[in-house]
Amino acid sequence: MTWIALADKNGGCFSAQGLSSLGPDQVCALDDPGTVMPRGSILFETRVSPEDRPQVVLGLECGMSRAVRITFQALPGGGMSLVHTRGSEIIHGVINHDSASVRTDILRVTYSWDMAHDWARLVVERPDSNRSFQTLLRGPVTTTLGDIRELALNPAARYMAPDILFLAVSDRIEPIGPMPGMTASTRVETPFGPQAIGNLKRGDVVETLDGGQVPVLQVVRRTVPARGLFEPVRLRSPYFSLERDCVVAPHQCLVIGGSRVEYLFASEHVLVPARHLINGTAAVRESNHMLVTYAQVLLPGHEALLANGTYVESLNIGRIRRSPEILKSSLLCQFQRATLPEHSVPAYPVLGNFEALILAEQRAA
């Protein structure tokens, strides 16, 4: 079970055996294009257009015997619609994410289906605010490997709006919601010395910013396309007090403190997403990966932990346990709901892009 297709404005790649099996030609032969995918997910990220009119953001149209059409359309006022047809089969869904109420630059849209259980799911996520909206549908339309290959590799059959950052297809039901943000080799401080975060397990103890020692409630992992808001960021030592380079997800927050932070933001520490630190020197994009696996620990109170010499945010799951449907669709569905903590608010203020730039300029002065 893996990612089988990936495409952006620079091209696409496809392999029914998984993208990790691809050779230099970036395309694997497909023995039977008519092979049905019993389950899967189409995921894409798109910038929010300022135009107040319906706009097709992603589409596929294959004529002749297949008569396949897939259309994702952004709707005015905040919404996304899906229409998927194949011959006489049809499924249609609409979801309202109310983009006007909160400024959102990029949306992540996921359409998943499970033929055996006769259901599908359309999800819109706002990665910058950790909010998810979903609608469940019945009667998913048949999707074949040939359809996905056309979506990834055939610009003549596919429409991809300029606002699309990338699209990817998995042969499994992809989770939504809180995402881990550290690569598995990142070393986290414990009472027994630094340990790779990917090797930690429930019950292990880590050291936190306030000098305490807290137990790891869970360790979550996810493999994702290394594109868009998943594209890794390399934080370079000795910047940010790092003892060695640290590769993280763009949303992973560093905990930064000091007198300037207190003066500028009236807080002892602030959280700064890694994507706001990219400047070509201290933090750079890692663009040479197709897939990347992230891990993170879940702690009782959203404490900060020491990783590669600097403090970073542990997994913040908010109050997801109060939203059973979102919880069921998330990475956390594998854990008992009663064992999950509630993180009502972030432990420290989270800086936006503009505030992060101010902090960087002050530190450089």
How would you describe the overall organization of this protein?
The protein is mainly beta and 365 residues long. The protein is built from 4 helices and 26 strands. The strands form 8 sheets. A 7-stranded antiparallel beta sheet has the order 2-1-12-3-8-9-10, with helices on one face. The chain has a 5-stranded antiparallel beta sheet with strand order 7-6-5-4-11, covered by helices on one side. The chain has a 3-stranded antiparallel beta sheet with strand order 13-24-18, with no helix packed on it. It is globular. The mean pLDDT is 89.
In a few lines, what is going on in this structure?
With 365 residues, the protein is mainly beta. The protein has helices at residues 145-153, 259-265, 324-329, 353-364, and strands at 3-8, 11-14, 39-47, 55-62, 68-75, 79-86, 89-95, 106-114, 119-126, 131-138, 158-160, 164-170, 182-183, 187-190, 193-196, 205-207, 213-215, 218-225, 233-235, 246-248, 253-257, 269-273, 283-285, 291-298, 304-307, 310-313.
Question: Which short descriptors sum up this protein?
Answer:
365 residues; five-stranded antiparallel beta sheet; mainly beta; 26 strands
How many H/I helical runs? 4
Largest sheet: 7 strands, antiparallel
Shape: globular
Give the mean pLDDT. Answer: 89
What is the tally of beta strands?
Answer: 26
H/E series: EEEEEEEEEEHEEEEEEEEEEEHEEEEEHH
Spatial strand arrangement across the major sheet? 2-1-12-3-8-9-10
The SS-based structural class is mainly beta
Q: List low-confidence stretches.
A: none
**Termini, distance in Å?**
50 Å
Radius of gyration: 21 Å
